[in-house]
Design brief:
- The structure is a homotrimer of 192-residue chains.
- In chain A, 17% of the residues lie in helices and 31% in strands.
- Chain A is of the alpha/beta class.
- In chain A, helix 2 crosses helix 3.
- Chain A is globular.
- Chains in contact: A-B, A-C, B-C.
- Chains A and C meet through helix 1 of A and loops of C.
């Protein structure tokens, strides 16, 4: 089985562990987080190194994914993604076995599709995105890199979401909505 | 395999193609749309005729479904449905393999249940309806013909929705709600 | 097959029957409701006794679950749960086969997870709860006894919900929200 390193050991990491184990394509080798947390565990998986050790880890392991969440700002997820790529890791896209991704959709590197999410026909999602639990990306949507589409958000058909956006939990964007770079959309919003 | 004609080649048609191919009960023969679009393709499926050719097509093909969307008004979907029935087509109900429809629920002719939608026990849905992606129809609901229950809408138990209604994305209707003919419920609404 | 008694024969009971039959772990023996309803049927299952007969039924049957809904107040569901436990029934947790419950989550006695609901990693749910259709309980949530998380509600990560709460349909609670005992959260609410 392919082996993977998780970068970031908080609450979102637990959901990521659950999805990866349930999917079964990757074996989790360990988690990278702050150095003072080394030796502690998240759902049984050890924090084995700090962010500074990524180059060294990339010599032994091929795959990694960024597993910290993103609410206030995408900056930390972007930094970790760039560091992991520079270190030589491959960042795969990962899809929960109970999510649905159309064969006509495209997913970028390091993007994760969480439990019960849906990505419909002709949608494209960039690199390092989180399509969180029960989120819906409708047909013809274009979502750029480093976006977090939060739990149960509904992105209706043909929307364009530029890079670095946070689309809050249970928010709705109308058909053909355009959301500019680094936007922060609050939970429960309706974007017209 | 049974062969089917899709009537309408826009954005919703892409989701319909995705559901039908994923389900695998029908082979898509082609799409009917405006005559100036004949020869163009939608996700690899050719527009083979215009709306005026439906009678002719019905002599060669048995099944059809209306695959245009419905937001402002149900009129165009009603016209196309009536024309297809008059031409002699059978309009089947189609259910995404990842949707759930209770064995105690009833679906009318030409009604499509999209990805991750749920239709619970003792609900009945009329003809030519769209139960769009992730929509929920709870127990004991009665939904008449030509309605579009949009993405991630929640129709709670025992609601009555008369014909021709549009229930917007991520809206919620409370238990036992009554929604009159041709109503337009905006995205994100709460109907008490 | 294990045999189960349903306590309460209203609208929610229909959804419960649908989930139990679809799951297939239990055979429904009959329903308990008001004495004047004895002999009538719900989706083909007979009302065989009244609430006063629970002690007698527990001598012949091992399993039961409370199948009435809960909107205004949890009191009736609590009374029926306590009566069933005292009578000697085992109240199992029941999970719809199309719901997802993480192997890292915990469910209490008599709790039911309805169609397309999700309970993510490290969440814990107490006794006698309803996690209704399409509801989402995110990672690290702690939900106490006798709560009804209504249809399509989103409980984001790390929330604490005390006992006896009703969380309305399509409402959203933000990360780490704290909801006190017996709270009533209206449909469509955003709780920060």
């Amino acid at each position: 089985m392919k082996e993977i390193i998780l970068i970031g050991g908080g609450g979102h990491c637990k959901s990521v562990i659950d999805v990866i184990e349930h999917d079964g394509s990757f074996k989790i080798i360990g988690i990278v987080d702050k150095s003072n947390l080394i030796g502690t565990k998240v759902l049984g998986h050890e924090i084995i190194a700090s962010d500074n050790d990524l180059s060294k880890l990339a010599k032994k392991h091929k795959y990694a994914i960024v597993s910290i969440g993103q609410i206030e700002s995408p900056i930390l997820r972007i930094q970790l993604y760039d560091t992991a790529i520079k270190a030589g890791f491959i960042l795969p896209s990962i899809i929960s076995p109970n999510a649905y991704v159309s064969k006509y959709a495209k997913l970028g590197s390091g993007t994760i599709i969480m439990n019960h999410a849906v990505v419909n026909a002709n949608a494209s999602i960039g690199d390092n995105c989180i399509v969180n639990t029960k989120a819906l990306i409708e047909h013809d949507c274009s979502i750029s890199n480093h976006c977090h589409i939060s739990t149960n958000a509904t992105i209706n058909g043909g929307a364009t979401i530029e890079s670095g956006c946070f689309i809050g939990s249970n928010s709705t964007t109308k058909e053909l909505a355009k959301i500019t770079k680094n936007s922060f959309i609050k939970a429960g919003s309706l974007v017209v």
